[in-house]
Amino acid sequence: MDWPHDPDGEQGSEGMRQYGHAVLAKKIDEGEDFPLSAAEYVEQYGDHPIRIDHETVVSVEEIFEHVETEEFDDFVAFHQELGRAMRENGYWFYEGPEKFVDGPA
């Protein structure tokens, strides 16, 4: 896919090597953008690339196909719904501490 900017460049990774949820959240100004319409967010950023892991890049629009909330009242609601949509649809790369740490013996 031809992206409007390089997903690994300055604009795509928001100045650092950012992935998934972090890039989605950094497109929002917490103090000014709420309530936030999901449709308006997709209209503005839908074709932007979101790197999920070292091999996978998807569009904002593709992730939002799984978002059920039409409007977010605040940043916490946005985070929670995006996190749910990403985890349930294979866009969440984080494996959790249980993959790296043995539990009590």
Report on the structure:
The chain has 105 residues and is of the alpha+beta class. The chain has one domain (20-93). The chain contains four helices and four strands.
| Weakly predicted, low-confidence segments | none
- Amino-to-carboxy terminus distance: 48 Å
Helix content: 25-40%
In sequence order, what are the helices and strands, one letter per element?
A: HEHEEHEH
What is the helix tally?
Answer: 4
Task: State the shape.
Answer: globular
Query: What order do the strands of the largest sheet run in, or round the barrel if closed?
Result: 1-4
Strand content range:
5-15%
SS elements, strand count: 4
**Alpha-carbon Rg, integer:** 15 Å
Major sheet description: 2 strands, antiparallel
Structural class: alpha+beta
Q: What is the number of domains? A: 1
Quote the average pLDDT: 82
Pfam families: DUF5785
InterPro entries: DUF5785 (IPR043903)
Attribute tags:
DUF5785, 10% strand, alpha+beta, globular, 4 helices, two-stranded antiparallel ribbon, two-stranded antiparallel sheet
What's this model, at a glance?
With 105 residues, the chain is an alpha+beta fold. It has 4 helices and 4 strands, in the order αβαββαβα. The strands form 2 sheets. Strands 1-4 form a two-stranded antiparallel ribbon. Strands 2-3 form a two-stranded antiparallel ribbon.
Topology:
Blueprint: H1 20-25, E1 36-37, H2 38-45, E2 49-51, E3 57-59, H3 60-64, E4 71-72, H4 75-88
Antiparallel strand pairs: 1-4, 2-3
